[in-house]
Amino acid sequence: MAAATSSPSSLVFTSLRKPKTPSFTWRISTPLRHPKKATFIVMSMDAKPTVLVAEKLGQAGLELLKDFANVDCSYNLTPEELCTKISLCDALIVRSGTKVNREVFESSGGRLKVVGRAGVGIDNVDLSAATEHGCLVVNAPTANTVAAAEHGIALITSMSRNIAQADASIKAGKWERNKYVGVSLVGKTLAVMGFGKVGTEVARRAKGLGMHVIAHDPYAPADRARAIGVDLVSFDEAISTADFISLHMPLTPSTNKVLNDESFAKMKKGVRIVNVARGGVIDEDALVRALDAGRVAQAALDVFTVEPPSKDSKLVQHENVTVTPHLGASTMEAQEGVAIEIAEAVVGALKGELSATAVNAPMVPAEVLSELAPYVVLAEKLGRLAVQLVGGGSGVKTVKVTYASARGPDDLDTRLLRAMITKGLIEPVSSAFVNLVNADFTAKQRGIRITEERVLLDGSPENPIEYVQVQIANVESRFPSAISETGDIKVEGKVKDGLPHLTKVGSFDVDVSMEGNLILCKQVDQPGMIGKVGTILAEGNVNVSFMSVGRIAPRKQAVMAIGVDEKPSKETLKKIGNIPAIEEFVFLKL
Ligand SMILES: NC(=O)C1=CN([C@@H]2O[C@H](COP(=O)(O)OP(=O)(O)OC[C@H]3O[C@@H](n4cnc5c(N)ncnc54)[C@H](O)[C@@H]3O)[C@@H](O)[C@H]2O)C=CC1
Ligand SMILES: O=C(O)C(=O)COP(=O)(O)O
């Protein structure tokens, strides 16, 4: 296997997966033994990863993908074909036309690591199922903003001047100048519903057309709106005062059919509606009723509840409705941009980098990630160690993690560390794989409650963390001395020279580098113990990397922590256990 050095950010995603297929195995090892150099090894790759591109993607994005992966462009797959193919793919790229539902994740057999949505809306991806399967979902949130906004403006202007209807009429041999008298935009009130990226750009452009623009968005900052001369108003005020309503919010349970009979009834008679967001935010039957009643004068729709809509859809066929087939993002420029944006995100995720456009995982900025990198290794090892100390039959239910730091809570993002401790706690005792995406879910599913506590230290906040402590409550231990005075299994560690060190087991101070494997012995402190154990290990051809003894007081109880490169044979371990002064003894894999 080739060993390559990568940035510390590599460890976060792929390192956390237990591959179920032999073709693509990534593993991050512990840091190299270079003091102060937090470098990680990516052990990679038996084969290139495979990316399935299920909908048309711009050429520049395809080229980027091909530099790194085998790219299978298979458009128009049936749901069954997608489910069959997906088990051979490490990543899937879609646009809005592919439903990435639970079945897709289940069919992947654990191989699918990333779903890339080449666009903004991720309502066609089952995020819960993705998260449960530890699959990262990334999108391309910025490259099609202008295209969508321009399409919104195109629909407003063409609708108000009956462009589509007039075009059809003239092509049918007619000349109907009186029929297609439009309405002017200048001075009219436009309500932008959803003042995000697209909504903001629509607002800017509409102001340029002389419209009075208001917006409704419960989550948008008022100062951003004010900066471009837009008032943020309530939902009712927006829909009841607008001459034009343009929809730009995502489809979520709370926006589903947000325009319905009740809301149409509150609108000004003769209002005009534009939808470039998602069909589902409008109750389409209610819109037909509002159009028939003249409450809504016109609608221009780029998106539909079901796409494509049925040929005989009353809404599509309505003479006061202008439609386009979900073309908001379809400009040459946007499609090239989106393709590059999503290809970079998917390749980055496959390389193990945290994506800036992750939809179902915390986004940890690169500088934070690089600073926390050695602590991430420490966290996982402490979790692994703690769970291996649990005595058979005791279920792990309550875990407390303590971070001692001179940093204020806002300066220390512990989500990554919590995920790694969770991984360490769960993976050695199960077949589950845990990563940043599914850590909290997996812990919850297994009934493990992980609480985090901060110990605020005086001193320099230069080091993000002084020590990390993992405690497991209400369990017995295979190594009773690991139970601290509070009755919990307790292990504590620090980062020293960029390397993780175990510094406490139960109430005993130790100091052993957390690499390879570890033997813990509890004994009566007396001369010759180190020699005896060392000799047995040497006879078994086991190399000792570290040894440390922590004792309560001279000649009293002591805990010896021995780091070993190889796994000792059963006979060697038995011989150590048989040394008369050794009272407790455990072998742990780190
Ligand atoms: N037709 C097309 O081809 C395209 C459609 N879109 C769709 O446009 C929508 C907006 O996209 P972006 O502006 O990029 O997303 P964005 O995330 O930047 O903006 C969405 C805004 O909606 C707001 N919002 C959420 N719930 C709301 C509610 N109940 N009422 C009002 N506002 C609410 C959010 O606070 C946010 O500011 C998405 O649904 C996206 O899928 C985007 C690009 C192309
Ligand atoms: O980005 C979005 O949300 C869009 O709706 C664009 O969809 P598309 O990629 O053109 O299928």
UniProtKB/TrEMBL annotation:
It is found in: Plastid, Chloroplast. Pathway: Amino-acid biosynthesis; L-serine biosynthesis; L-serine from 3-phospho-D-glycerate: step 1/3. CDD domains: ACT_3PGDH-xct (cd04902), PGDH_4 (cd12173). Coiled coil: none annotated. Its main location: plastid. Homotetramer. This is D-3-phosphoglycerate dehydrogenase. It comes from Coptis chinensis. The lineage of its organism: Eukaryota, Viridiplantae, Streptophyta, Embryophyta, Tracheophyta.
